[in-house]
Amino acid sequence: MEGGSNSKMKEKKDRQKGQNPNIEPFVPKKGHDPRELKSWAKRTGFVSTTFSSETERANSLSRRDFTSGRDLNVRNDNTGFDLERGVVNKTETVSPKIELDPILGRARNRGVEIEPVLGEGLGNGTRRENLGRRIEVEPILRVHNEERKDGLNENGNGNNSANGAVNGNGHIETRKDDDNVDEEVGYPDGEDPSYGGWHKSPPLKCGLRENPGLVPLMYYGLQHYLSLAGSLIFIPLIIVPTMGGSDKDTANVVSTMLLVSGLTTILHSYFGTRLPLVQGSSFVYLAPALVIMNSEEYRNLADHKFRYIMRELQGAIIVGSIFQSFLGYSGLMSLLLRFINPVVVAPTVAAVGLAFFSYGFPQAGSCVEISLPQILLVLIFTLYLRGVSVFGHRVFRIYAVPVSVVIIWAYAFFLTTGGAYNFKGCSADIPASNILIDACRKHADTMRHCRTDVSNAMRTAAWVRIPYPFQWGIPTFRLRTSIIMVIVSLVASIDSIGSYHSAAILINLKPPTPGIVSRGIGLEGFCSVLAGLWGTGTGSTTLTENVHTINATKVASRRAVQLGAAFLILFSFIGKIGAILASIPQALAAAVLCFIWALIVALGLSTLQYTQNASSRNIIIVGVSLFFGLSIPAYFQQYAPEIGLILPGYLIPYAAASNGPVHTGNAQFNFAMNALLSLNMVVTLLVAFVLDNTVPGSRQERGVYIWSKAEDIMTDPSSLLDYSLPSRVARCFHWAKCVGT
């Protein structure tokens, strides 16, 4: 009898085996070998490794018996799962009761969407899901709304998001979080972190729509702008003296830049992409501005040189900005986005910083006793002391530039008052052309670059001054300079596109739609028109350093940026603030700019993380683009060597417009072509754009930007809610589908 019973049970098991899928059992090992986990996941089709018997500490989930319809409930140990972090919480208890598809490894009775964690708009064309949604199979069936909001800000973004996640049946690696807890990090099928298939955003202190209160907002806002101080205030210290302006003119231009930056930032936060990105005078416009102001007709101009050059810059900026605004609001930028990828953006942004290598240290070297300590100090702060916290804040990483400037400025003040730059019979107030003694001429140059009391801006600037449009006169419009700024505005747009995408990743948002990107570019064009009307000397665009600032401060609050912009507007009305900033010694300003330009190069090249870095195609395209982006302009810049007898050495690269090799029957065309081909960023963009869009390569290899689709708004309106215009404005532009309203 016993033998017959065993025989019947064996036959019954064989029949059930034929009906049920054959799932290979997995016996966990104490070592938690990632290779073992991955191979088992591949054989079983399991998509999640953060629960079940994948690891020794995971729970046993209830599985339905397909032949009898009974639930086989298996008790689990006293461990819980933190779905936001993807790790086990040993202090919680879970009573899982979930139905699993044994083939797909997915829960049938799930209450929320269960999807693999994928990269955002990168690699194989997938995008990261909003962190406000559950991303793994949830073993707790009855989850209250309050529990789902743990670790989320009011925007639904996971500020306490996981430092690691296990996902798909792809690669698994181990990483350590801030608490030195090993966590397993997985990547989707066929994706490798080396080319950006997976991007983990850092946790944020303050999310996009969070309102921590007035005092924290004031602190975060001022912090954001202080970290960008170098980009906001140092451009006037370069262009105004080159244009022949006085110290008072420098102070007025600084105040004007503060006002325009505040206004345009607020406009962008309401009517642009609505990302927390500061708008300001971009270095993209600095090189073409130097080219225009060093043209032959202005070299020997003595009377009102500053006003003449400023008016021509204003006219050129207005024309180029109108083109940029048309490019955005017409929807043409949405079409152009198909051809703009990280392989194009990376060398172009890097070339913006590399364009000033011949200007940076030659200017800083005029007073090495100030510039060298400044460069060393800012490097020590940003590299060696970046992890040091003071009262819970990483001061040296966030405030590296302003803190180092204050220290070295005080050091220069003590050198000045101590008589280090006192030379008998020499005065810094006398123009170099009027000094007859050679020794005094050399000493006068040293005093102008090193002394802290050379500038008379504090004595001449008014306490209260409100910048106004056309304060330098009616703009001058010329075809030659307008052509230059039209092309430069296109470069500025491409620079901003990369910033939009990187900022969205850092803030844990879905990428914007092409229409939203077009809307942002269109508004940047309008903001540059304002910069042209007020007369800042350069256009207004999204500062590339925004990405570094958000990453360093971990603050992405829109309200903080708006409040900081309001402070900028207030400061612009106090003339003495502009005068104080205008009094920074030139060598000190040049030393700070050396670091900022190097940072722009690094930020540009970091865009390559979204591509396959090991691809020979990408390596060659980027290398060729950068080489010819430096070499071709050098040919134009050195075409007329006699220019060195007229201009200082650091300005020679910007004098090619009037003395370049292009000679046709049209002088205006000659000027524009010589100027454009002498600009590193323009040549780099042209070479990279042509090569990237003609050389064969997969979308994954090229790291093609994947933007959200307009249909996403219809299927899930909340997914792109953070980019939505204010309701009243959205009604007015409801018809404008091309700008993502």
The residue-averaged pLDDT reads 77
Low-pLDDT windows of residues? 40-198
The overall number of domains is 2
The percent of residues in helical segments reads 40-55%
Would you count the extended β strands for me?
Answer: 8
State Rg. Answer: 30 Å
Shape: globular
Tally of helical segments: 30
Q: Which structural class fits the helix and strand makeup?
A: mainly alpha
Q: Major sheet: order of its strands? A: 1-2
Distance between the termini: 79 Å
Percentage beta strand: under 5%
Largest sheet: 2 strands, antiparallel
Q: How is the quaternary structure best described?
A: single chain
Written account of the structure:
Residues 153-170 have a biased composition (Low complexity). Belongs to the nucleobase:cation symporter-2 (NCS2) (TC 2.A.40) family. Keywords: Membrane, Transmembrane, Transmembrane helix. The protein has 741 residues and is mainly alpha-helical. The protein has two domains: 26-203, no CATH class; 214-723, no CATH class. The chain has helices at residues 2-19, 34-44, 145-148, 214-227, 229-242, 247-271, 286-293, 296-299, 305-329, 332-336, 342-354, 357-364, 368-384, 395-398, 400-417, 438-450, 457-460, 479-506, 514-534, 546-553, 558-572, 575-582, 586-606, 616-637, 656-659, 667-677, 680-694, 699-702, 711-715, 727-732; strands at residues 63-64, 71-72, 80-82, 87-89, 172-176, 182-186, 279-281, 540-542. A two-stranded antiparallel sheet has the order 1-2. Strands 3-4 form a two-stranded antiparallel ribbon. A two-stranded antiparallel sheet has the order 5-6. α9 (305-329) packs antiparallel against α19 and α24 (616-637) runs antiparallel to α27. The model is unreliable at 40-198 (pLDDT under 50).
